[in-house]
Design brief:
340 residues, alpha/beta, 2 domains, 8-stranded mixed sheet, 7-stranded mixed sheet
């Protein structure tokens, strides 16, 4: 443990998921954590027992979470709190408290704030390192006159690669659906957006009208899409010519007639997890899949309570690690990413 324990935790979530996050934390931690402060997309809890920055809230509904360092008026105040905890090397993430689901964020203004805070921290002898063990989260309010909120966590393998789990992107005009944004946010979360995917194959289950397939085609992948619905012309006539459409329901897909290996399997089908997951397991039993991005529909409250059950089932057939989170672009959904 570095520094003294703090009595509060914080978490950021997508808009409209505050109640889901609080209920999930209550199921996981019981009376250890008591909700203390809530604003849209932001919650803090008072902790009944001593904890430090290694504590894992472990809720998929928390896009990012950690130990609360409280509100700070200045970078100097933030530096003092780090020094009090004997921290001289951190990774600095600056992101907004309010994040639109379509990712239209003013990152230029946030970068200016980050540059100022970074300069102050460095002047106090605190080194900034993207690979540091501790991540300092600076949550910027939508009110420009509000105080900054500072949080601290020890880095974990399943942590988002981008500040607040919010990639710097927005839906392009040629994308036929929001599925483009969901797959791009998932790739960014795991750092897979940095991979060279050109020439590799993907299987897109529930592909129509083609938002996710388009994102992968634009990255140079070859895509087999499975869906009874029509595909957008921008996908069918993509310059790469790498799309093949299997017009059938998932239940009729014969995995033994597919290529033996895929670099990526996607699934975003409007079916309940108990209906869709057995089919994905069946497919993964017949083919080799390096990575998976699965969108689980949480359209009924009971599915949120069963989320750990669904994730554990995915672990039984998917490559490790298996990471579950609610992306900013998800609505009543949770994204599960598997593989390295």
């Amino acid at each position: 443990m570095s520094g003294s324990p703090s009595p509060f935790l914080f978490a950021c979530c997508r808009e409209g998921s505050e109640t889901s996050l609080k209920n999930d934390v209550l199921r996981r931690h019981g009376t250890l954590l008591t909700p203390a402060f809530m604003r849209p997309q932001f919650i803090t809890w008072k902790v009944r027992s001593p904890i430090d920055e290694s504590f894992d809230l472990a809720s998929p509904f928390a896009r990012v979470s950690g130990l609360s360092l409280g509100q700070c008026k200045t970078g100097e105040e933030m530096a003092t709190r780090l020094i009090e905890r004997s921290l001289r090397r951190v990774c600095l993430h600056v992101f907004p408290r309010v994040a639109p689901e379509d990712a239209d964020i003013d990152w230029q203004s946030l970068d200016s704030i980050r540059n100022h805070i970074a300069s102050v921290l460095q002047n106090h002898g605190i080194k900034l390192d993207e690979g540091a063990e501790h991540v300092l989260n600076l949550v910027v309010d939508d009110n420009p006159n509000a105080l900054f909120f500072a949080g601290l966590r020890k880095r974990r393998a399943e942590d988002p690669q981008t500040p607040g789990g919010l990639p710097c992107l927005s839906i392009p005009g040629h994308a036929p659906s929001r599925a483009w944004l969901k797959v791009e946010q998932a790739l960014g979360w795991r750092g897979w957006d940095k991979l060279d995917l050109r020439g590799l194959s993907a299987l897109d289950l529930g592909c129509a009208p083609g938002g996710a397939s388009l994102a992968l085609l634009d990255r140079g992948m070859k895509v087999i899409g499975v869906d009874t619905g029509d595909m957008d012309e921008v996908v069918l006539r993509h310059d790469a010519g790498g799309f093949r459409h299997l017009r059938m329901p998932l239940s009729r897909l014969n995995a033994t007639k597919l290529p033996s290996a895929f670099a990526l399997l996607l699934c975003d089908i409007n079916l309940a997890p108990p209906e869709v997951l057995p089919h994905i397991a069946r497919i993964c039993d017949s083919i080799q899949v390096e990575r998976l991005i699965l969108t689980l529909k949480m359209n009924q409250p009971i599915f949120e309570k069963r989320l750990d059950e669904f994730v554990n089932f995915i672990r039984s057939f998917a490559p490790s690690p298996v990471v579950a989170t609610q992306l900013a672009a998800n609505r009543k959904e949770v994204c599960v990413m598997a593989g390295r």
